[in-house]
Amino acid sequence: MTPTDRAADAARPSPDSAIEPVPPPETSVTREPVVAQILHLVWPALAYQGLFLTIQLFDQFLAGRFSQSHQAALTTANYLYWFVTSYTVVVNAGATALVGRFVGGDDLAHARRATGQAILLAIAFGALAAVAGLVGLPALISTLNLEGEGAAHAVAYLNPLAVLLPCYMIEVGGIACLVGAGDTRTGLKVLATVVFINVPLAWGFSHGTGPFPDLGFVGIAWGTGLSHAVGCAYVLVVLARGRFGLKLTPADLVPDSDLIYRLLRVSVPAAIDSVSMGSFQLVFLGMINALGETAASAHGIALRLEALGYLSGAAFATAAVSFVGRALGAGRPDLAARGGWTALALGGSMMTVMGVIFFFAARPMFKSFSPENDPTPVIEAGVPVLRLIAFAMPALASTIVLTQALRGAGDTRVPVLFTWVGFLGVRLPLAYILTRPDVGMGLFGAWLAMFVDIHVRGAFFLWRYIGGKWQQIKV
């Protein structure tokens, strides 16, 4: 055997070495402690959720100077805007999951390409939603038992938001890609800018202050919509300059059918879930609107206050979706599972604390947002439901955090069934029974149905996560 032959034979793997598994690449998601990573991801996400809630509460505060019919219109408008924008998931779910897998596997070229395709989808679906919203709003509102002045106010409020909806889609789609890459700080900076601009715009347009025209109630919506247009521009500038390995170029915006298919394969089931939930929520709202303007106004305020608990769960959910996707991309399903449990434990603890606050401070909290002209009926209707939902915070944490943990893994099909069972099997039929005049439970009966639904779905998501099948899903 020549020296060359011996060298070649030494380089050739032995039978034993050929079957040894190749260890997954060592990345930041596998090197650093899980709790530290979750906390690092969550504080910007928590601040982001707080700023988003600030916009909603500020809008609710501005609406407080108007009549009860305006309050009811704002509640319906917020439901409808949430319904129309809920299908942003058709971009966000796939973007976060796919970018997370690519970044976790250290494939930044495909991560950038997937980001470009997500922006393309955001533009297309945003334009489609804007047209559908402008054409279909009057007919949709008429089906929700909101009549007269309240219906007219709701349509007028939603029109500017529909016009500017593509900007919002691009904003949240770009942020979803950055979250997949492990960046939760940019979203915070974007929304801080949005809030900074929204406050003077919404105030100015609704009051006619300084150079702003007096648009009254509709001015609140113009302030919100225009501020998100600025947020859209901010996100595009960040992606063009490059952040966390994502640097958007014109070449990344050329349609790629394979990546678009992979994005939609994850996102479409999640969007069906989200839009289904939005549709069911509209039916639920119709039941509440049928109870009268006082119930509708109290319901809207209670939802805004409940969001103070929801935001901490949503922040830990953002941390979970980012961590789970990257851990799976790095070939560490065990680490992904640990990250989801950590996010649930920490987020659930914070939500439980907020539940205690809801229970003991419900009345003063409600007084801050009730109509100035006649607050007592709204307060008396709303305080009991806020105290009730305080006891649902742990179950709600399970639903919120584990939904996103599963989406980070690309597990978006089975959770659709949980939504359908929770709403069609529990919330809607139970709310119909409890709000009937002969039962007489009114708004409290509707929220009791929601309370039961949250516990049922929370248990389902816990069962799915414990099962572990999500760890084998390919995206």
TrEMBL record:
Region (Disordered) location: 1-28
Membrane spanning stretches: 38-59, 79-99, 119-141, 161-181, 188-205, 217-240, 308-329, 341-361, 381-402, 414-434, 446-466
InterPro entries the UniProt entry points to: MATE_fam, MATE_MdtK, MdtK-like
GO biological process: monoatomic ion transport
NCBIfam families per the UniProt record, alphabetical: matE (TIGR00797)
A Pfam family it matches: MatE
Descriptive protein name: Multidrug-efflux transporter
Protein's cellular compartments: Cell membrane
GO molecular function: antiporter activity; xenobiotic transmembrane transporter activity
Membrane topology note: Multi-pass membrane protein
Organism the protein comes from: Fimbriiglobus ruber
GO cellular component, as recorded: plasma membrane
Keywords for this protein: Antiport, Cell membrane, Ion transport, Membrane, Transmembrane, Transmembrane helix, Transport
Residue stretches of biased makeup (Low complexity): 1-18
Keyword Metal-binding: no
